[in-house]
Amino acid sequence: MMTHVRHWISRKRWLAPLVAALLLGQMAVAMVTGAAQQTPTIDEPADEVHGLLVVSDSAAATATGRVAELIASSRPVDEVGHSITLYRR
Predict the structure, then answer these.
(1) Tell me, what DSSP letter sits at residue 25?
(2) Which residues, listed in sequence order, are joined to residue 84 by a DSSP beta bridge?
(3) Predicted pLDDT at 31
(4) Distance between terminal CA atoms of the chain?
């Protein structure tokens, strides 16, 4: 009996990758549909945004719109390496 099971399993080597691909696909669909239903945070007024803002110096230099507004109303508190600045709001 065991030889029949082993023979069947050895002939179905494609089954495990197929199951893994199906599960990953299901997870991707769940993540995309869940993310589409979440409220974006870009509608928060700048004065209600608090915490740390981590921005590369090149992005801060070319920032426009909302990001520029957040950087302008924050104070730099530290640097990471030579090209990333941490701002506190």
Answers:
(1) H
(2) 56, 80
(3) 86
(4) 69
Average pLDDT of each block of 10 consecutive residues along the chain (89 residues)?
Answer: 66 80 92 74 74 90 88 91 90
Q: Are residues 10 and 33 in the same domain?
A: yes
Coil, strand or helix at 85:
strand
At 23 the pLDDT is 94
Distance (Å) of CA 62 to CA 19, 65, 67, 85: 46, 10, 10, 14
In terms of phi and psi (left: phi > 0; alpha: psi -120 to 50; beta: otherwise), the region of 76 is beta
Q: Based on the domain organization, do 82 and 55 belong to the same domain?
A: yes
State how many domains the chain has. Answer: 2
**Taking the model in full, what pTM does it have?**
0.50
What range defines the domain where residue 9 resides? 2-37
26/53 same-domain check: no
